[in-house]
Amino acid sequence: MSAPRARQREDVEEAYSIQTRSAIEGAFRGGSIGLGLTIISHYSWPFFRRQTFPFKGFLVCTCAVFGLVINAERALQEYEALRRWEENDIRKEARFHLAQQGIIPTETAIAKWRADRDSSPRELNTEQRN
């Protein structure tokens, strides 16, 4: 498997794990809020007290699913924004280094620069300090 594909697969796995953890947290939080509101409504509102148990369970599940979806989407969007920022930063650095060498920063040149950078990160770090 090529380096860009491997990097893409790692990104997908990382995004999936972040989204899963956040979804579980959101479902727990939303379910807790729904359960709390249902209990408060049951003891303070006679109309709600007359509602069936399955309907109250449906309301709690709806809150849990809403929390799951919203939290998972928010976490994924934050991760994507972070990855875009990192990618733009790397591309900016590649364009700068390629321009210093007199190379036009095309996609192929940037990919080659990135492969060279990934294979020997120590050399580039010492160049950047000077």
Automatic annotation (TrEMBL):
The keyword Membrane applies. InterPro entries: Rcf3. The chain crosses the membrane at residues 26-45. It comes from the Eukaryota. Keywords: Membrane, Transmembrane, Transmembrane helix. This is WD-REPEATS-REGION domain-containing protein. It comes from Mycena sanguinolenta. The lineage of its organism: Eukaryota, Fungi, Dikarya, Basidiomycota, Agaricomycotina.
